[in-house]
Amino acid sequence: MKKAIDLSQYGIVYIGYPIWHSKAPRIMYTFIESQEWGWTQIIPFCTSSETDIGDSAILLKNLGHGGEWKEGKRFAENATKSDVETWISSL
Description:
Strands 1, 2, 3 and 4 form a four-stranded parallel beta sheet that branches. The radius of gyration is 13 Å and the shape is globular. The mean pLDDT is 89. The N and C termini lie far apart (33 Å). It has a single domain (12-90), classed as Flavodoxin domain (Rossmann fold, 3-Layer(aba) Sandwich), CATH 3.40.50.360. Helix 1 (26-33) packs parallel to helix 2 (54-63). It has helices at residues 26-33, 54-63, 81-90; strands at 12-18, 36-47, 65-69, 73-75. Helix 1 (26-33) links the parallel strand 1 (12-18) and strand 2. The protein is of the alpha/beta class.
């Protein structure tokens, strides 16, 4: 297992990934499992032309060690920078 990154300096971490067959890529599972999230807020987001974030964020949350997981969001392939900024501002 890879050494965890020191996340203690971050209050919020955004986790982004593409949806592959309704799930996050396996490398995301490995990354989430290898970290000690402590009290960090984790906000997942994904990209997909059709599939919603759905269970992918729940599966990642269940693998994590700590952290406060927030509701995630899916961005379609035509999402703009403004779409992302609006979403972040709404959090």
